[in-house]
Amino acid sequence: xxxxxxxxxxxxxxxxxxxxxxxxxxxxxxxxxxxxxxxxxxxxxxxxxxxxxxxxxxxxxxxxxxxxxxxxxxxxxxxxxxxxxxxxxxxxxxxxxxxxxxxxxxxxxxxxxxxxxxxxxxxxxxxxxxxxxxxxxxxxxxxxxxxxxxxxxxxxxxxxxxxxxxxxxxxxxxxxxxxxxxxxxxxxxxxxxxxxxxxxxxxxxxxxxxxxxxxxxxxxxxxxxxxxxxxxxxxxxxxxxxxxxxxxxxxxxxxxxxxxxxxx
Length: 264
Description:
Layout: H1 5-8, H2 20-45, E1 50-56, E2 62-69, H3 74-103, H4 117-155, H5 176-223, E3 231-234, E4 242-245, H6 253-263
Antiparallel strand pairs: 1-2, 3-4
Helix pairs in contact: 2-3, 2-5, 3-4, 3-5, 4-5
């Protein structure tokens, strides 16, 4: 059975961003973001409404200050809570795997030297992109979760006695849950962009590490002192000097190549 380069190449660890585990977690996080978006749309469609009560106080005047809710708010509360948990799980999964991959990345970026100015500029660009994705991801995530928490608190305020007329009624404003859903799905896509940017930076650092090793190997090869010759001339009394070979003569590369050609 033939051995290929793929067999000799080291297998990717489960914590690597480009591993199968990383791809599965990335897809899983995106699916959770889509689930969050759908649940937010359902919560928006089923959110509680205010119904104004028209009553006659007995003096011939109509009193419209009384209101009641259209429902108990359990349905939008459940869907909003599901969206809240789905988005939180997606963020935890993506960022936990990203932190593990960066902390265990090989090579360590702090130990590398930049051999190519173009690679250095590319790495700086990737750094700014990663910073942009990181900041915008957390901003969208925070706003989405705050909106969902507001919706949850409002919908949970009339679980009991929702049909009783009252003087004041509080409901979630139109578009609150849908806005949270849009921000939620934006969050997971921005987090995916952050993971992809980190993966590109990891590939670039690996290329720099390979270049560093090649330069170090070449510098070590050329820094070795020249090999002393194995031939020496000794003089015998009354005779012409005779060329002798040292007992510990080591054949050079040319001798090995000639012997290899003869074998072939």
